[in-house]
Amino acid sequence: MIFVCKYRKKLLVSRQISDDIKQFSYEICQRHSVIVRYMETDKDHIYYMIETEPTMSISKIINLMKSYTTYHIWKRYPQ
């Protein structure tokens, strides 16, 4: 999966923000038994390779990951 920043803004240039997104992604995946095989950030997008049970839909995983990481990043970096 590839998640892109809104309007392709270069928001992930900061190492701290990139590391926080990775941390939040691992947290939410662990809670829902999703295994992250690979994750990497670039300036305006994030790559994920994940593994999950067939009972969990991809759309549900995407929704969980995007909402959780967005909420916590906005909370930590309100600007």
From TrEMBL:
UniProt cross-references to InterPro entries, sorted A to Z: Transposase_17 (IPR002686), Transposase_17_sf (IPR036515)
Gene3D superfamilies recorded: Transposase IS200-like
Pfam family, one: Y1_Tnp
Example of a GO MF term: DNA binding
Ranges for domain Transposase IS200-like: 2-79
BP terms from Gene Ontology: DNA transposition
Classification via PANTHER family: TRANSPOSASE FOR INSERTION SEQUENCE ELEMENT IS200, TRANSPOSASE IS200-LIKE PROTEIN
NCBIfam families: transpos_IS200
Protein name: IS200/IS605 family transposase
Species per Swiss-Prot/TrEMBL record: Dorea formicigenerans
Biological classification of the source: Bacteria, Bacillati, Bacillota, Clostridia, Lachnospirales
Gene: tnpA
